[in-house]
What does this fold into?
Amino acid sequence: MLGPPKARRVDRPVLVSLEDLVPADDFYRHLERVVDLAFVRDLVLERTAAGLAAARARGRKGGRPPVMTPEKAALARQLYDARQHPVATIATTLGVSRASVYRALEAPPASDAAPPAPPARPRARGASRRRRRGPASRPDSPE
It folds into this structure.
């Protein structure tokens, strides 16, 4: 029958105290975490790329499906070229956003006819045409 394990005595060097080991331990733990995270990141990237390649091989395409079908884009172009409907009305009629209508109008038309000039996008609220200057570029400030 076996008895209790014998305690072994571990000698430490006299010059190394417990306070000296704490920063070194923290450093090595931190270093292990960094290496581990880099390995996991590379592993995730590799698996993601492999999954996307397998999906492409099966004929699948990732991403959000386009909201503007070619038919909707052609209809938006016809309505806009008629100059009777604002872009907001066209967007509401087609069930898309105004930005989608503007994107469809900026895209080259399906036919070989000369494209009309793309409409100017309205400026976002709060967008200023004035360029802001720092205090050093003002004429009345000392340099």
